Amino acid sequence: MESSEIELEYERRWKAMSHMEKFSRCAAMFAWTRQQMARRIRSEQPSLSDEEVKWHVALKLYEREPEVVKLIEEQLSHVSR
After folding, report:
1. pLDDT value at position 23?
2. Would you state the pLDDT for residue 63?
3. Is the alpha carbon torsion for 45, 48, 53, 56 positive or negative?
4. Which of 59, 37, 60, 41 is nearest to 49 (CA)?
5. Coil, helix or strand at residue 11
6. How far apart are CA 59 and CA 61, in angstroms?
7. Does residue 79 contact residue 52 with C-beta atoms inside 8 Å?
8. Within the chain, which residues score under 50 in pLDDT?
């Protein structure tokens, strides 16, 4: 499959970035993703506290890691409303 001009330009720009620029870009994308997840959780469950929303976001992020989920659920059980 042939790469599109957009894909080639993206690759060119990505390769031109320093490691710090790449790290910064990835961190910003991760923060944006967490914000979007929090907004969705908040819209589905408006009565949750900010602390609960934070832990629900963590549950979604780590849902495929049972041992981490167990730790998050434990923390969530201690959150006061």
Report:
1. 97
2. 95
3. negative
4. 41
5. helix
6. 6
7. yes
8. none
Residue owning tokens 């602390």: 51
Residues 51, 25, 76: CA angle, nearest 5 degrees? 15
Q: Is 20 left (phi over 0), alpha (psi -120 to 50) or beta?
A: alpha
Element (H, E) at 40: helix 19-44
pLDDT of residue 81: 67
Q: Provide the CB-side half-sphere exposure for 11 (13 A, CA).
A: 6
Task: Decide if 57 contacts 41 (C-beta within 8 A).
Answer: yes
Instruction: State the CB neighbour count (10 A cutoff) for residue 34.
Output: 15
The structure tokens listed for 33 are 């993703």
Give the count of beta carbons closer than 10 Å to the beta carbon of residue 38: 17
> Quick check: pTM over 0.85?
no
pLDDT of residue 1: 67
